[in-house]
Amino acid sequence: MKTQTKSRNKNVLGTELQACCHTPKTGFYRDGFCRTGPEDVGTHVVCAIMTEEFLIYTKAQGNDLSSPMPMYDFPGLQPGNKWCLCASRWKQAQKAGKAPVVVLEATHEKALQIIDFELLLEHKYSNA
User: Which end of the chain, N or C, is less surrounded by CB atoms within 10 Å?
Assistant: First the structure.
């Protein structure tokens, strides 16, 4: 099985994929990057900054990201945490008006197969 390396991954801006978050450790491969591969059927490629509104929304959809799950070494997310979301869940939340902001530099280019770039730009995180 061929393993993707971080250096070959590009973000939605076409540049090298940046880390999303190391605390808590995010990404399908739990390496801090929103990388994807054949095993990642959920396509966890959108680096988003959690909001209380989104955490409540996704829990109501059956994906509880706020409750700790020690058996998976998962502390539970709080507003302000960065996390690699499934592109389809982010798009669903956006249609419901609940999408969190996105860190474009840490969002994998595969997100563009599911989400229009213009939509991501409308929700981009700005630290200015």
Answer: C
